[in-house]
Amino acid sequence: MRRAMRGSYMVIALVAISISLGGRWVGAQVHHVVASDRGWDPSSHVGSWSSGRVFRVGDKIWFTYSATQESIAELQSIEEFESCNISNPIRMYTDGVGVTLDGEGTRYFASSRPESCRNGLKLHVEVLPTQPKPETQTTVSSDLLALAVGPTPSGSVHLKGVSTLLWIVLALLCFIST
Question: Which residues are the signal sequence here (predicted)?
């Protein structure tokens, strides 16, 4: 009797988790280290480093630089970016940490030192929306699922995304506990 109650609680918990996640995985973040090994330096050709890269909402850009010698200005417009006008930045990054790309659109970053900016130490990125993961269907045999939630009206059940993983784990837990 206790095993049946415990199994019921597991089913309820997993159903609640599955519903709250909407049956989908959250898109993975990508961490981009600007100019890779060379870091935030005029000789690293930051502009060419970014060409061909895809930046999405939720990704993070890491600027590797010495916080005692450099800081990064996030600029509002293409005009400020092209002219290296850093007098009115949106934000100043002074601690050498990453920047989370939290919205779609173009973001402009430049060295806070005008001479470095004019020497090419600036970066603009086009941030695209998150890419939804393609949903795949998995068929779980009715015998395995019956151990977790009882009989089903059809011969198989189709589950998607996170739900599939949660149901399989639940079925294995129920099977082990019997």
Answer: 1-22
